[in-house]
Amino acid sequence: MEEEYEAMEPENEPIEVEYEISDEEIIDNATGIDTPIVRTTRKKETPGGSLYYAPIVDESLLPIVGKNYETLEECEKMYRLYAFHACFDIRKSTQKTTKSGLVKQKYYLCNRGGVPMQVNFDTLQSSKKPIRKSNMECTGCRARVKFDWVYGTNTFILSDFQEHHNHELLPQEYRHLSKTERQMKYAEQLFVYHSSVSNIGPTKAYEVYSNMKGSEKNVHGTVTDFRNWRRDLNVFINASGSQMLVNKMEERKKYVPGFSFEYKLEKSQLHSIFWADEVAKCNYKEFSDIISFDATYRMNRYNMKFVPFTGIDNHHRCVTVAAGLIRDETAESYTWLLTCFMKTFGKEPNMIVTDQDKSMAIAIKAVFKTAKHRLCMWHIMRKVPSKIQEAIPTIEDELEKDFKNRLNKLVWNISTWIPAYFIDTEMFGLMRTTSRSESEKAFFSNFTRSAANLLTFMDGFESAMLKQRSKQESLDAQTIKKNPKFCLLDKMDNEEETEIYVVKEEKEKTKEGSNEEKQFFHYKVLHNSKEGSMNKNIEEIPEKYIMRRWRRDIISPELRSRRNRYGNENIVVQDSVNEITSVVYDCVELVGSDENMLKVILEKLKLLKKEVEAQVPKPSKKKDDIIGNMIGVSKPRCANDKRLMSGKEKAIKESKKRKFTCGKCGRDDHNQRTCDKKKKKAKEQAETSEI
User: Dmax over Cα atoms in the chain, in whole Å?
Assistant: First the structure.
């Protein structure tokens, strides 16, 4: 390789010509506005007519031949700093080693060095394989540095430095588009990942991030780089997403207290999963009187049905007590899911509300022994008019038969949906339809999409749980802040032995264009006077009149604030990261627009960074390691690293396959052996021979 570089040396040294471009030049454009343009290169020409470009940089940044460096890292850092100010990219090249493996010679080149590839193809022939475009071209640039190992020491000396380029260099204004500056930092990579968890695409994430930074020039990477990183995240998961999900959930089950997870395999494929955390278990313990569940479609790319179990909390809002994914909606799948439900909670709900799915009814009857099964009244009443209208002639002709039996045949058994049949069940009026489940479907659809893999779906589910529980915390805090007022009203006219106590709750309400108004909410409490009189100036409702499920302190604040996304150790780490970020932003806010103070803070942060780099080992730069740390699970050894193909690419690949045609009829869906005409002819010949 050394001989190759020696052969690439220019025969004539470049000389400066008279029309050398100055560092600053004024150009009069068509509008007559004088625009100063700062040049970063000097153009030179050899006697042979070849043009070369010499970067204009500060002399302190120029590589000095004969200077020693302690390590190869310092050598590379020096040349990269020079290349950054000179506005070109570099890459590593050939190195020579000793028999013991020590590097004794190392080259760093301009990234446009090397022999250009000569690719010839016919642009008019569409059947040819398309040539993939590249983001840079090789021009045979000879700009480079060479470092030699100093024998007997651990240092390296700069033995060769070629300054001139045979191509134009980027202006400083376009330096953010260079290959080096487009390398995404960990902050950008993490932002793309968190955006995908929030169901935000890479293009929108790039727009948001560039606005946060003030300009696209302040972002490491373009929108294409953001898209490529999102693609790399999907490729990392790819075919082993199911195994990675199981590993992640098993790890969480091991380290997160009270987390339950069950899964089922069929033919070595993931068929069903069920999970519930400690907060969900506590919610079920307090609000297990009525539960609704229904299957939701188009939540992941594998078409696994999402089945959330929904209850009603003490704020009369939907609360998810458990969830599952199933491959199909058979009775066996629902039976397995409800069996896991009973294994996790150990207690049946008082009532369970579903739609008219027969598989659900079979599973509920097989697993639940005491829970009452109620069908969605809305779905049934929607069908009643059409079914009754169709059966009116039959009913009129057979008036002597039992009307109840005939009605059961038309619109299901009335004992499964008429409210009167559930009046003996506590809190039966909380839920009469599956509208709560429908509401949960709409809620979860904001956090996932139909093309999501299982890991992305699970991250979206956890984000949805964080939002749901954050709202519950907010409602708890609002309830604690309020001070209800009490007053005694007159006795009821018909119930002489009953008194009504009313709790008044004041709430401020502001309307546009008007002053603040106060709303009063009245909560009635009945009291039997035979049990003893009550003080009219009561301060709180007696305990016997309050159901436990409606108490505001039923779920402890400490339990509300728990998170199941991180393990025990990662919670502290995440809190520390958030605090560090907050402190930095607070310092920037305090300084404001004071440039001198901002420079002081920047220098201190750079010094702190150097101290951290000296004490902490460098993290791995491998893409798989970075992504694995982000999503919290490593790639299995059996994972496939092939790039995911789009539907268009698959169609093009399929269309290019060689198609075989039948030699008899010319069709491409069979060959001569399976040709219908040939079979028909053979049958006719057989019949002729028999005759």
Answer: 119
Residue where the block lists tokens 């020696």: 6
Give the number of other CB atoms < 10 A from CB of residue 197.
Answer: 21
Angle at 373 between CA 369 and CA 376, to 5 degrees: 165
pLDDT(526) > 70: no
Bridge partners of 510?
516
Predicted TM-score of the model (pTM):
0.72
Cα angle for residues 63, 65, 69 (degrees, 5° grid): 75
3-state secondary structure 179-238: CCCCCCCHHHHHHHHHHHHCCCCHHHHHHHHHHHHCCHHHCCCCHHHHHHHHHHHHHHHH
Q: What is residue 129's DSSP assignment?
A: P
Burial of 464 (0-12, 13-18, 19+ CB in 10 A): buried
Would you call 345 helix, strand, or coil by DSSP? helix
**Chain position carrying tokens 């100055």:** 22
Residue 312 contacts residue 430 (beta carbons within 8 Å): yes
What Rg, from alpha-carbon coordinates, does the chain have?
37
What are the tens digits of pLDDT across the range 322-342?
A: 999 999 999 999 999 999 999
**Looking at the predicted structure, is the pLDDT value of residue 611 above 80?**
yes
> Which one, of 328, 329, 380, lies nearest residue 353 by Cα?
380
Tokens representing 573 are 């780490």
The residue among 240, 238, 294 whose CA lies nearest residue 270 is 240
Residue 199 in contact with residue 232, Cβ under 8 Å?
Answer: no
If you ran DSSP here, which 8-state letter would residue 492 be given?
A: P
User: 291: closest CA among 217, 341, 366?
Assistant: 341
Q: Which positions ≥6 away from 330 have C-beta within 8 Å?
A: 359
Q: Report residue 151 as tokens.
A: 């024998």
Q: Which two tokens stand for residue 682?
A: 């053979």
CB of 307 closer than 8 Å to CB of 288: no
Given a contact cutoff of 8 angstroms between Cβ atoms, the answer to whether 247 and 277 are in contact is no
Sign of CA dihedral 251, 252, 256, 258: negative
- The token pair at 527 is 């009291």
Helix axes 454-481, 186-197, angle to 10 degrees: 80
In which band, very low, low, confident or very high, does the pLDDT at 432 lie, cut at 50, 70 and 90? confident
Q: Which of 225, 236, 229 shows the shortest CA–CA distance to 194?
A: 229
Residue 44 in contact with residue 15, Cβ under 8 Å?
A: yes
pLDDT digits (tens, 9 = 90+) for 180-208: 888 899 999 999 999 988 889 999 999 99
Q: Classify residue 514 by burial, with Cβ atoms within 10 Å: 0-12, 13-18, 19+.
A: exposed
CB 149 within 8 A of CB 104: yes
Question: Helix 241-255 crosses helix 454-481 at what angle (to 10 degrees)?
Answer: 40
Give the confidence band of 70 by pLDDT, cuts at 50, 70, 90.
Answer: very high
Q: At what angle do helices 186-197 and 202-213 cross, to 10 degrees?
A: 130
Cα 364 from Cα 337, distance rounded (Å): 10
> Distance of CA 134 to CAs 127, 137, 223, 623, Å?
21, 7, 17, 21
